[in-house]
């Protein structure tokens, strides 16, 4: 009842504010005019607003076509940017992809996760059909210390030998499907599995590496074992006495700067540029504390320009 009374009061006030003017030629189409603009712009009551909304609902704002397409485009782009999971593919599709891999690519995949390990090592026919593969069954020596038979693998079937680096040593070839002077797989193998080379020796026309671990030759693209891991008859000492092998290159052993006393390290820091000091401070904790606790080193360094530190 209060709402109805308010609405009637508002309607009567509107009627009182309207004044009848004399008819003219220009005023026939608009016989009624508002007497005062202030009365016309008075804010309406809440009940009147609700009544007008129910009687004449405002149309919903229409989204332009170009904005709708851009929103859909953003959604589609965000969906496309989601990382594709190779492991979500069914086994048949994964096996199809393995057929296009080289033997070194299969080795890298087996070291990635358990699914790749079981997919490839349970089906060694893919290894035999891969590029760069050479049959190792006839040359596979189980009596060698690297090929000793171990207990059955918990993830693989019985009598299954997983793909490993000793199988590929001196047999399989890397970079078999690349251009003649490219060494992508050779460099990847040496960066991933090889240790630092200490020296090289030439033995009966082919090059060996002195050190520990595996390495891949850049000329023949085959994986080899470094000489210090071979038996005694292949050591460098025996090679020098017999004259069969001659060292052709040796890399000097660099001393560790961290073993030097602090005074000598500070003397070395004096000859560094400001950028060299920045690199050293990001190397280890000792360099970080040596340099940052003595800002006078930074001030004396080459390329340094003094600036007042101001808070942002």
From TrEMBL:
Occurrences of domain F-box (ranges): 83-129
Annotated InterPro entries: F-box-like_dom_sf (IPR036047), F-box_dom (IPR001810)
Residue numbers spanned by region Disordered: 1-65
Residue stretches of biased makeup (Basic residues): 48-58
Biased composition (Basic and acidic residues): 1-26
Superkingdom of origin organism: Eukaryota
Pfam families associated with the record: F-box
Spans traversing the lipid bilayer: none
Protein name as catalogued: F-box domain-containing protein
Protein source organism: Ascobolus immersus RN42
